[in-house]
Design goal:
Elements lengths: L16 H7 L5 H8 L9 E5 L5 H8 L3 E5 L3 H6 L6 E4 L13 E7 L7 H11 E14 L4 H12 L7 H4 L7 H4 L7 E11 L1 H9 L8 H18 L5 E13 L4
Parallel strand pairs: 1-2, 1-4, 2-3, 4-5
Antiparallel strand pairs: 5-7, 6-7
Helix pairs in contact: 1-9, 6-10
Amino acid sequence: MSTPSELEPTGRFTSRAGDYVRYRPTYPAAAIDAVLAGLAAPAELVAVDVGAGTGISSRLLAERGVRVSAVEPNRAMREAAAAHPGVTWLEGSAEAIPLPEAAADLTLAAQAFHWFRAEEALREMARVTKSGGRVALLWNHRSRSDEFMRGYEAVILEVLDRGADPAIVGMESDVAAVERSGLFGPRRVVSFEHRQRVDRDGLIGRALSASYVPKDGPGRARLVELLDALHARYANGGNVDFVYDAEVTLAERLPR
C-alpha cells in the first residue's frame, strides 16, 4: 500500500485547481478559534500555512488579523488562490520551507499533512516555529456516522482512479510523528461538526476536486451516474449536506 506522500503530491492537483477553488469546503470558525487559542492577539502573530493549496485556511487566519506566509509547491494552485492583503505566497514544500529559523508563532497544515513525508516535514515545521510557538494540523474528515456521507464514500471507493489507494481517500497520516519527533510537546485533539450544503453540481464538483477520482472518460461518467443517484436519494430542496468532523491537532514547539 502506497502512502500519500509517495504518490506525486505536488503535481496531482494541477488539473483540479479550478474545482478546488469552487467546491472545497472552508473550516468552521470554532476550529480556527482552537488553532489560535492561547496565543498572542492575532494582529501580533506570524503564521506559516504549509501546503496551503488555494489559500482557504490562509485567508481564514488573515481575516482574523494574522500575517500569513502561504507555502505551496503547485503553481496552478497558487495562481488560482484569491488574493488577500494579509497573505504572502511562497513556492516551497513542507520538507523545504523557504523561511528562516523561528520565523513563525504558528505553523499550520490544513488538509495537507497526509501528503507530507511526516518526519522531514515536522523537522522543517519545527525549524520555522519559535520556541513555545504552535504547530496545528487541521482536517475536514468525512463523518463516519452520517448516512449520506457513507454513501458518498462508497461511490468514491467504487470509482477510484487506477493506481489510487483507499488510504488516500481516508487521508491517513502519521500524526504520532509529532510527539515522536521530540520537537513538540504532547498532542491534543479537538473536533467540531462542520456542514457544507451543495446542490447537484456542487456535489459533482466536490468529488472532482479530489485528486484520486477520474477526471474524464468512462470513470467520470460512472462517477456522475452514481452521484446523481445519491443526490436523488438524499436531496432536500435540491441540496445535500456534506457532514465533516473538523479535527484539529495541536502541539507546542519545545525550547531549542
